[in-house]
Design goal:
The protein has two helices and 17 strands. The strands form four sheets. A six-stranded mixed beta sheet has the order 3-6-11-14-16-17. A four-stranded parallel beta sheet has the order 2-5-10-13, covered by helices on one side. Helix 1 packs antiparallel against helix 2. The chain is globular. The two termini are about 25 Å apart. The relative contact order is 0.14.
């Protein structure tokens, strides 16, 4: 089960009530900067925007591929570790608006993680260090460290063996 906070709504579906949960100005500002980051070829500029403007926690040497889309309304709820690759056109969501409720959840992506292209990561999941997520997957549950997962529904393909890093430490 994902770790999400649930907020029931009455009346029209929760998306019609979005500006009760987030400022429209925050949404507009974030959207503009996310679009700049999505199309920028500069990894340094992308990470600067994510850290300084959007409030995300992004580790050293992390790379977001072209067209990666982070949550527009709650990017500050996304954490990505060191030396991780987020593949082309991947979407990372920290919110979901449903008919009778909306949900918020932190997304935690570890260090040395590889996220394949066109993956969707849902709110409230944790992806452990050294995990690999296959292209086109929908991450709807936590992913254990050192595992290789893929698909929709997400399933474990194999547990990866621990490896030595450049300093000779087992990870």
């Amino acid at each position: 089960m994902r770790n999400v906070e649930r907020y029931p709504v009455e009346g029209p579906n929760s998306l019609w009530q979005i500006y009760r949960t987030v400022s429209p100005w925050k949404g507009i500002r974030n959207f503009i900067f996310i679009q700049i980051a999505r199309y920028s070829p500069s990894l340094k500029l992308k990470n600067w925007i994510y850290r300084r403007i959007l409030g995300m926690k992004v580790g050293k040497n992390t790379a977001f591929g072209l067209m990666a889309m982070v949550d527009v309304f709650f990017p500050e709820r996304i954490t990505v570790g060191d030396n991780t690759i987020i593949g082309y056109n991947t979407t990372i969501l920290a919110h979901e608006y449903l008919t009778n409720e909306y949900r918020l959840g932190d997304v935690k992506i570890g260090s040395h993680v590889m996220i394949g292209a066109n993956t969707t990561i849902l709110p409230g999941v944790t992806i452990g260090d050294y995990a690999v997520v296959g292209a086109g997957s929908v991450v709807h549950k936590d992913v254990a460290p050192h595992s290789f997962v893929a698909g929709n529904p997400l399933r474990v393909i194999r547990e990866q063996a621990k490896t030595k890093d450049e300093d000779g430490a087992w990870s």
